[in-house]
């Protein structure tokens, strides 16, 4: 079998046929070096006073050598990072079809709200009496998250999805221990997100996989076969990673509860069902919500992520510190175990502070500007767009689960390339030349050579039509036998196709100054 991953990083003859330039730049596509290649370690970009001599508190962990950072002026620093940003794809540049991770437009109204001084300039160590507005905002956000999910309480402190999974599973473990039991295994469907089994394993649970049916969903009978008094929970993604709604979710939840276990719902795909389905009504006991997916806040670009966890009545007492209590005079921020009351049994502290205030502000602004009808329409439009992509590509691309309508993302596999010598990776690299970030490749693992496409509700029909036309053109070129077009791609990216497998297995984590070039004779 040919290894199609390793490729020279230099431009090939097709891309280098244009006249070379002295600088190596191509018009405004500027060749950018590393900071160490641009700056000088002997100087700094600004004048600093000599640091006072102080006794180190690091002991043997203190640095023994100079740190060796390059010094750059402010213009040099700005230019470096702006140039690098031009080499990245972003939702503000074009459609971002990444399946399994909702990449939707971030309304600028949200950004303006997040920059209000009363939210942007507060500090985690300020007295609670000076941040009443922020606490009230957190309470409002909590209220609407509970309203949309049908749950009892919410832990706002988790920083992202996997952090939220950890929070929910620790709460489940605390609830089981509170009733004097010890359980050692967790059921995880093969169609779940990869962080689910990782989280369970991190907490010491044995992971028991649950296979998917031929139609891509979980069979309640398969769950019941694996339930026992040792099972603490099931971790199920709904809609699942195949882009399908688990139609037997209520029966699965009832079976899990009958066995004394809990139902953890992965909420990464909540964008498909907001305003349509309340997870609490389906039997979910804990679920994280990626604010930076469902409610539009940036994926890390505007600060840390946010993965609040909603908890059922059975798990609510075990929500971690710090948490909000609904008091008669308004919400109260409970920060220590000494401040808890009867019925509150927090499992501990998951993180030091609610450090992602900007994410809360953006998410609440998104909710309030859309309203209940707008949030429902966003979900419906996300599903509509995904099904539009699926329908328009179904005659050329192979869908592993037939003509069944999908939810928020359309799934195809590498049966689409039979007889062409083209792989999913080759196709994705050619898509870069068309100006698109590739769809999710090779995931979910239950589908061979998977191509997972999530257009979200942000895209107009015109932008979808152009993307679909590019996909169709590439597939027709593949079926026409234009193998080299795909093997050489991408031609027009700042860097050619790299050996990504080798880079992951043999990373170079330190920069070494290259040897001086030999003088020309």
Automatic annotation (TrEMBL):
<dbReference type="GO" id="GO:0016594">
    <property type="term" value="F:glycine binding"/>
</dbReference>
<keyword id="KW-0560">Oxidoreductase</keyword>
<dbReference type="GO" id="GO:0019464">
    <property type="term" value="P:glycine decarboxylation via glycine cleavage system"/>
</dbReference>
<dbReference type="GO" id="GO:0005829">
    <property type="term" value="C:cytosol"/>
</dbReference>
<dbReference type="InterPro" id="IPR000192">
    <property type="entry name" value="Aminotrans_V_dom"/>
</dbReference>
<protein>
    <recommendedName>
        <fullName>glycine dehydrogenase (aminomethyl-transferring)</fullName>
        <ecNumber>1.4.4.2</ecNumber>
    </recommendedName>
</protein>
<keyword id="KW-0663">Pyridoxal phosphate</keyword>
<dbReference type="GO" id="GO:0005960">
    <property type="term" value="C:glycine cleavage complex"/>
</dbReference>
<dbReference type="InterPro" id="IPR049316">
    <property type="entry name" value="GDC-P_C"/>
</dbReference>
<feature type="region of interest" description="Disordered">
    <location>
        <begin position="497"/>
        <end position="521"/>
    </location>
</feature>
<dbReference type="InterPro" id="IPR020581">
    <property type="entry name" value="GDC_P"/>
</dbReference>
<dbReference type="Pfam" id="PF00266">
    <property type="entry name" value="Aminotran_5"/>
</dbReference>
<feature type="domain" description="Aminotransferase class V">
    <location>
        <begin position="180"/>
        <end position="300"/>
    </location>
</feature>
<dbReference type="GO" id="GO:0004375">
    <property type="term" value="F:glycine dehydrogenase (decarboxylating) activity"/>
</dbReference>
<dbReference type="GO" id="GO:0030170">
    <property type="term" value="F:pyridoxal phosphate binding"/>
</dbReference>
<dbReference type="Pfam" id="PF21478">
    <property type="entry name" value="GcvP2_C"/>
</dbReference>
<dbReference type="InterPro" id="IPR015421">
    <property type="entry name" value="PyrdxlP-dep_Trfase_major"/>
</dbReference>
<comment type="function">
    <text>The glycine cleavage system catalyzes the degradation of glycine. The P protein binds the alpha-amino group of glycine through its pyridoxal phosphate cofactor; CO(2) is released and the remaining methylamine moiety is then transferred to the lipoamide cofactor of the H protein.</text>
</comment>
<feature type="domain" description="Glycine dehydrogenase C-terminal">
    <location>
        <begin position="378"/>
        <end position="476"/>
    </location>
</feature>
<dbReference type="InterPro" id="IPR015424">
    <property type="entry name" value="PyrdxlP-dep_Trfase"/>
</dbReference>
<dbReference type="InterPro" id="IPR015422">
    <property type="entry name" value="PyrdxlP-dep_Trfase_small"/>
</dbReference>
């Amino acid at each position: 079998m040919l290894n199609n991953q390793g490729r020279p990083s230099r431009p090939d003859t097709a891309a280098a046929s244009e006249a070379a330039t002295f600088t190596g730049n191509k018009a405004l596509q500027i060749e950018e070096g590393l900071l160490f290649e641009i700056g000088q370690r002997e100087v700094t970009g600004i004048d600093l006073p000599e640091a006072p001599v102080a006794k180190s508190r690091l002991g043997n962990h203190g640095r023994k050598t100079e740190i060796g950072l390059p010094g750059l002026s402010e213009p040099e620093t700005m230019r470096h990072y702006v140039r690098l940003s031009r080499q990245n794809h972003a939702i503000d540049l074009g459609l971002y079809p990444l399946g399994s991770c909702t990449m939707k437009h971030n309304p600028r109204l949200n950004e303006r709200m997040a920059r209000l001084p009363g939210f942007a300039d507060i500090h985690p160590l300020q007295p609670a009496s000076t941040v009443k507005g922020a606490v009230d905002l957190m309470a409002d956000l909590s209220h609407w998250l509970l309203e949309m999910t049908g749950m009892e309480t919410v832990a706002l402190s988790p920083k992202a999805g996997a952090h939220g999974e950890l929070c929910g599973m620790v709460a489940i473990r605390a609830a089981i221990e509170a009733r004097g039991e010890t359980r050692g295994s967790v059921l995880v469907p093969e169609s779940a997100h990869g962080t689910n089994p990782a989280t369970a394993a991190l907490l010491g649970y044995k992971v028991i996989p649950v296979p998917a049916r031929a139609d891509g969903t979980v069979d309640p009978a398969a769950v019941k076969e694996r339930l026992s008094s040792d099972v603490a929970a099931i971790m199920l993604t709904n809609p699942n990673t195949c882009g399908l709604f688990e139609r037997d979710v209520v029966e699965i939840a009832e079976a899990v509860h009958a066995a004394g276990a809990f139902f953890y719902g992965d909420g990464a795909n909540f964008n498909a069902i907001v305003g349509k389905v309340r997870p609490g009504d389906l039997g979910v006991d804990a679920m994280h919500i990626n604010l930076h997916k469902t409610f539009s806040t940036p994926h890390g670009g505007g600060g840390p992520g946010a993965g609040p966890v909603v908890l059922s009545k059975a798990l609510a007492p075990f929500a971690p510190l710090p948490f909000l209590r609904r008091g008669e005079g308004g919400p109260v921020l409970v920060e220590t175990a000494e401040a808890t009351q009867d019925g509150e049994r927090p499992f501990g502290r998951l993180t030091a502070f609610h450090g992602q205030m900007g994410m809360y502000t953006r998410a609440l602004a998104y909710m309030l500007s859309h309203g209940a009808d707008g949030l429902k329409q966003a979900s419906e439009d996300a599903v509509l767009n995904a099904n539009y992509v699926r329908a328009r590509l179904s005659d050329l691309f192979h869908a592993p689960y037939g003509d069944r309508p999908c939810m928020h993302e359309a799934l195809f596999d590498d049966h689409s390339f039979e007889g062409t010598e083209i792989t999913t990776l080759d196709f994705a690299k050619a898509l870069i030349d068309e100006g698109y970030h590739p769809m999710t490749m090779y995931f979910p693992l239950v589908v061979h050579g998977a191509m997972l496409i999530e257009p979200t509700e942000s895209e107009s029909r015109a932008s979808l039509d152009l993307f679909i036309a590019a996909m169709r053109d590439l597939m027709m070129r593949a079926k026409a036998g234009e193998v080299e077009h795909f093997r050489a791609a991408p031609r027009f990216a700042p860097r050619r196709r790299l050996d990504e497998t080798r880079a992951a297995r043999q990373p170079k984590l330190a920069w070494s100054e290259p040897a001086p070039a030999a003088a020309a004779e």
